[in-house]
């Protein structure tokens, strides 16, 4: 990507415009996080409810004291290990962060993305950038520039094309509280990796049940999210046919399969996420495959449940929310 395109994107952001840009997780819809009118445009374009907070992206650690009132030794250990990367920390905010960014709450979500285009853009603009996923609110996340153009293209000032996203699911969101760390959203950094660095992390009961908190401090925690337009059902294994008992033979069903298996002719279309059963490969392919099934004119998408370990935890979280009625 030419420096002139990055410079143009930075100028648009400084002037209050919107720029979609790639990260290692998904494409983000960026605005100057310190400008409330710019951030308001993000909510308008996405049709996003204002009670759902945004993640602030930075490239330099000297922005940390300007955005958060407290940066503990635990936070330092996590950032030393995982930044740049798909880990977002929720920390007490300073007065410099507009309330619109944090949904009126006292905390701000911050991360450093691990993508050369995102990092260069953040360095050149030298501003914190609020950037939720660049798609209509609640729908399938974009993992290439074409997805952004198809869904939001005419409403965005510029789209930076950095190729397909390497990780393919959103960042993990971790809140650091006086009582200990809380996993608010599983994502591209696994719970196991985090616990190797800081020890036990609490997984709140509300997250386990797939329920949103009354006061949101993290994006991606509403009961329904990441959803295709086609109805989605989950199966716990190839012998789980509960969904099939209620369907007639004329219903067109697609399968989102973790890995190859006994995929019968019952399915009109099958998308296999990993031919080797690799969770990282499955995560990288997840939203693209779900998008293809959603565009196939099906009556129902059936999705395999993943092993509840590593990135499987994040993928299951996306599936539960996408299937929530």
Tell me about this structure.
With 325 residues, this protein is α/β, with parallel strands linked by helices. Helices cover 31% and strands 17% of the residues. It folds into 2 domains: 3-208, DHBP synthase, CATH 3.90.870.10; 232-323, 3-Layer(aba) Sandwich (Rossmann fold). The strands form 2 sheets. A 9-stranded mixed beta sheet has the order 7-1-2-6-3-5-4-8-9, sandwiched between helices. Strand 1 and strand 2 (28-32) form a beta hairpin. Helix 1 packs across helix 5. Residues 207-214 have low confidence and may be disordered.
End-to-end separation = 42 Å
Largest sheet report: 9 strands, mixed
CATH class categorisation of the largest domain: Alpha Beta
Helix content: 25-40%
Structural class: alpha/beta
Largest sheet: spatial strand order: 7-1-2-6-3-5-4-8-9
**In total, how many beta strands?**
13
The CATH topology name of the largest domain reads DHBP synthase
| Oligomeric status | single chain
Structure annotation, total helices: 11
CATH architectural grouping of the largest domain: Alpha-Beta Complex
Q: How many separate domains?
A: 2
Order of helices and strands: HEEHEHHEEHEHEEEHHEHEEHEH
- What is the 3D form? globular
CATH superfamily of the largest domain: DHBP synthase
What integer value in Å does the Rg equal? 19 Å
Strand content: 15-25%
């Amino acid at each position: 990507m030419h420096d002139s395109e990055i410079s143009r994107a930075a100028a648009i952001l400084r002037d209050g415009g919107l720029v979609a840009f790639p990260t290692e997780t998904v494409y983000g819809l960026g605005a100057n996080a310190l400008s409330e009118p710019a951030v308001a445009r993000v909510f308008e374009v996405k049709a996003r409810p204002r009670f759902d907070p945004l993640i602030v992206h930075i490239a330099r650690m000297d922005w940390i004291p300007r955005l958060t009132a407290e940066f503990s030794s635990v936070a330092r250990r996590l950032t030393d290990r995982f930044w740049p990367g798909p880990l977002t920390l929720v920390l007490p905010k300073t007065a410099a962060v507009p309330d619109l960014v944090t949904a009126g709450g006292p905390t701000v979500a911050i991360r450093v993305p691990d993508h050369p285009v995102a990092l260069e853009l953040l360095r050149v603009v030298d501003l914190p950038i609020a950037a939720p996923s660049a798609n209509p609110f609640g729908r399938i996340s974009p993992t290439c520039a074409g997805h952004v153009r198809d869904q939001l293209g005419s409403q965005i000032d510029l789209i930076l094309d950095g190729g397909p996203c390497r990780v393919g699911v959103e960042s993990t969101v971790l809140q650091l509280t006086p009582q200990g760390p809380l996993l608010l959203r599983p994502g591209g950094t696994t719970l196991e990796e985090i616990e190797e660095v800081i020890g036990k992390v609490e997984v709140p009961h509300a997250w386990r049940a797939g329920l949103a908190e009354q006061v949101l401090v993290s994006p991606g925690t509403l009961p329904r999210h990441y959803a295709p337009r086609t109805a989605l059902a989950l199966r716990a294994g190839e012998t789980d046919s509960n969904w099939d008992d209620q369907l007639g033979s004329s219903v067109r069903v697609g399968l989102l399969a973790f890995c190859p298996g006994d995929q019968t002719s019952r399915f009109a279309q099958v998308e296999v996420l990993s031919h080797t059963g690799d969770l990282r490969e499955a995560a990288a392919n997840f939203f693209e495959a779900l998008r293809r099934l959603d565009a196939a004119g099906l009556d129902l998408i059936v999705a395999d449940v993943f092993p509840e370990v590593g990135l499987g935890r994040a993928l299951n979280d996306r599936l539960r929310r996408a299937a929530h009625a």
